[in-house]
Amino acid sequence: MNRTSTVIKVEGVSQAFGAEGDPRRVVALESATLDIPRGELLSLIGPSGCGKSTLLNIIGGLATPTTGRVTIDGVEVKGPSPQKVAYVFQENTLFPWRTVIDNVKLGMAFQGVSKSEREGRARESLEAVGMQDFANHFPGQLSGGMKQRVQLARALGLQTEIVLMDEPFAALDEQTRMVLGEDLSVLLARTGKTIIFVTHSLVEAVFLADRVAVLTARPGKIKKIINVEEPHPRKSNFMTSAKLGAMRNELYELLHDEIRKTMTLRAEVGGDK
Amino acid sequence: MKKESKIPQRLIQLGVLLAILLVWWWGTLPGRINPLLLPPPAPVFKNFWLLLTTASIWPDLWVTVHEWIVAFLLASTTGCTLGYVISRSGYAVRVFDPLLAGLYSIPAILLFPLYLLFFGLGSGSKIAIGTTIAFFPIVLNTIAGLAYVDKAYIRAAQSMGANDFQLFWSVMMPAAFPVVLTGLRLGCIIAFLAILGGETISSLAGLGHRIVSLAENMESAQMFGNILFAILMAFIINGTVSYVEARGRRGMQ
Q: Is ipTM over 0.90?
């Protein structure tokens, strides 16, 4: 991998909640170091509470690390960088009082896109996710999968180089996720964006990503990074291939012990109360 | 889901009203209830009709409506402003929200004798009591609306680069709007009730004043006509405000 093409650099990032010495102090993330090259899709996977979302929020500037730093194009992240980074959240963050297209346009207004440009860009990004016929619907009238498509359209409309996705399909049923995953692969192959994708799903992680970073149980450390050598866009036959199956199994092996550890940890915490 | 027909509901509601009217008519037949205490329906409705068709009630009506509008405007500006200021800090919310909720449970009408001393028998004391009573639901709902906006909306807006003004105008305000609107509706209605109540206790003019002086003069039929008029007004106010609220909600959706 070409070093000069690195866009996101995560250098020894740790995140702890609670003061030092406090028995309730939780170290969510411990000295995470990662280089993410331009145009890569990186999946973050790990047991619950391992700091995947924390790491994502630090990269996006929505959280400040306790130690270490993140740079994007060599500039240290100190807050949200809406010109460079767009988010897709797990929960529905579409504003229910605005129509689909107005939601997409509002994101651009926040980002500072001139008024005349918004309409065209919003239509384009809705078309990219197949939601152009629902432009004038309100979010409340859409299914969960459609809402996530609109959130994706809103992120794409911002035309940032980086998109951070925090378990975007977690609240959806298996079949909807499958279709959305395939569509996403096609879409992302076309845009060439740099993407970090947090997920709980082993299959999803392998199916979408160029690399999968496996995190350990809390305190989260990066345990291993697995390369997925498969051209984009990924076809549905990749989903059923032996290659994907083997990688899924490898991830399962890596994660199994970590998930067990999390469960024990939880039982201990529960016993304290 | 099958849409329920509204006709049976309306028929039952109408039936209840008719039953009340019937009991009233039956109870006031000659030899039953003393007509000085409860006059029969016919003269009451005749007086009610006179109130609707002549201008005799207008001076008193204007006094009450004027007091009500001023009280509501005062309560909504102070309530919304203070609610907004408090909602800006989580600490202030934790301090003042329970405090205001506690004060709200005190029957504010007990302040009325004090207001009579402060502001006199005229409109001032009515405006003061109406403002006091309407202020609480407005300030409490403004706090509830603004302080408890879903954090996910705020995070999303900030990640897209919203500045403080955009965050307030495009996210906090519309998110809080339905809750604030409910406070305004409650304030609007109870301000009217409080003013009417204040007028019946002690006043120089107004709808409540008329009702009390008619009662003191044993003009029962006229008094009940005026009461019907006040009920009609409360009914219209409630209907109008609820309609405006529903429209406002739909507008924001």
A: no
